[in-house]
Amino acid sequence: MRNLKSILVIAFVSLTLTSCNDDDAPVLEPAVSNQAINIPAPQIGGAGQGPVSGAFTKFSFKSGTVVTDASWDIAFRGTDILVNGGSKIGLTDEPARTANGSLAIETGAFESILEAPEDANFKQDATDVYALPIGSGNGWYTYNRQNNVINPISGKVIVVKTNDGHYAKMEIISYYKDLDASNPRNGRFYTFNYVYNPNLGDKSL
User: What is the tens place of the pLDDT at every residue in 119-170?
Assistant: First the structure.
């Protein structure tokens, strides 16, 4: 009888501890999957039209919108993409870096990139250095000289550590308004798929 009581006490304590542990476990919010459509990236000059200038368009994965304050994660102007981390590259009209964001380039199907890479793979902007390399074939796009079209490189996924330490991934679908590359005037409008993890520090994507 005494042994039976001991067993029941142990079982009760174990059940209580398990219940407490379950209650203490953090509740993770689901990742947000979305598509940003026609994000403008205008620039002045370039392509033989004088020095490149003009404000960058700043985007926040947390809000899923263009922003004008310091909460931005990445910024667009023409084919250039900046990250809110590191220091200024030395471009005219580029925004100040106010956070510790960074980015990495992964190769593979967008759906197959399920976790942010090791910290060593992430880069920040620096003087004369882009975290996301520029130029045809170097970063996210190729340029076709025959038809003057910018094409995103298939299988290039940009993983971003955001301005406040969250993780996101993005896949650029098009550089043209309404996905229409038939007219060069439609250029400098980004459409991209992205996944944002709202759980601080969680690398799951």
Answer: 999 999 999 999 999 999 999 999 999 999 999 999 999 999 999 999 999 9
Sign of the Cα pseudo-torsion (30, 39, 46, 135, in order): positive
DSSP 18-36: HHHHHHHS--PPPPEEEEE
Residue 92's beta-bridge partner residues? none
Euclidean distance between CA atoms 104 and 114, whole angstroms: 14
State the sign of the Cα–Cα–Cα–Cα dihedral 144, 150, 151, 152: positive
CA dihedral 91, 56, 131, 193 (to 10 degrees): -160
The more confident residue out of 188 and 2 is 188
